[in-house]
Write a structure and sequence with these properties.
Blueprint (H helix, E strand, L loop, with lengths): L12 H9 L5 H5 L5 E5 L7 E9 L4 E6 L2 E10 L2 E8 L13 E9 L4 E8 L7 E5 L8 H12 L11 H6 L5 H9 L4 H32 L9 H10 L10
Parallel strand pairs: 5-7
Antiparallel strand pairs: 1-8, 2-4, 2-6, 3-4, 4-5, 6-7
Helix pairs in contact: 5-6
Length: 251
């Protein structure tokens, strides 16, 4: 039996409310809440343009509040024996985690003249090879990263996952099993493997939809409808009262 959503690590009352707002009410809803896209990150050299750079935090971040809804976090990292300025907006909540000596990966745009990366995201991990980051639809108050962590925590509980595709179809189309497919979609390591997992889950979604349609059709065929008793004599009297004769087609 699966644990309930509120018992998953990282799901408190507020987070539970936000998940409900996204249409997630139980473990199955959570596991079926697939990423809508994937960011593929690869380490880059420190040259002007978009970069993915790993480094060590060298200075204590400074938070500047520009206006009520806009703040700026500024600090420096050391990467490949060089000091680089980092600026990221509306991430003041990261300040306490960006301690000196912390290893991070910065994703953003590098301005060589200013020796500054304007970051779009900061990951608290080193990326030394291609890394695939799942991105989920969110609502105010919950981030894609938090949803990803909650999904991982749910998968770690070894949940019971229903497989709706018959074995003969799994064998015919050489599908991966559903448990592996769900894990791969939420924790992608290889694009090729992920594509096979997505194909399997999309097929199941179509299979379940067509099964429901065929079931509803069969119910409609078996339904005789409401039976009514018709007084034939009244119909004959009505036809006789007409000031014209009905054609064979009308009869």
């Amino acid at each position: 039996m699966n644990i309930v959503l509120k018992d998953i690590k990282g799901v408190g009352p507020k987070t539970l409310e936000l998940l409900n707002r996204l249409g997630i009410f139980d473990i199955q809803d959570l596991l079926d809440y697939y990423p809508f896209r994937y960011d593929i990150l690869k380490p880059t050299d420190l040259i002007s343009g978009n970069v993915v750079v790993t480094g060590i935090v060298e200075t204590t971040p400074i938070t500047t509040y520009i206006k009520k809804s806009l703040n700026k976090l500024s600090f420096r990292i050391e990467t490949n024996d060089s000091l680089v300025n980092i600026v990221i907006f509306n991430r003041a909540f990261m300040k306490n985690n960006l301690r000196r000596g912390t290893s991070i990966t910065v994703i953003g745009e590098y301005d060589e003249k200013r020796n500054t990366i304007t970051a779009s995201n900061i990951l608290f991990k080193e990326i030394d090879r291609e890394y695939i980051e799942p991105v989920y639809h969110t609502t105010k108050g919950i981030s894609s990263k938090l949803i990803s962590n909650i999904v991982k925590n749910a998968l770690s509980t070894d949940p019971v996952i229903e497989d709706y595709i018959p074995d003969y179809l799994v064998e015919k189309y050489d599908f991966k099993n559903k448990v592996d497919s769900i894990f791969e979609v939420h924790n992608p390591v290889n694009i090729g493997h992920m594509d096979k997992s997505l194909d399997r889950l999309k097929y199941e979604e179509l299979f379940r939809f067509m099964f429901k349609i065929n079931y509803l059709k069969s119910c409609r065929v078996d339904d005789d409808g409401l039976k009514r008793t018709i007084d034939e004599s009244k119909i004959e009297d009505f036809i006789s009262s007409l000031p014209f004769n009905l054609t064979p087609d009308q009869l």
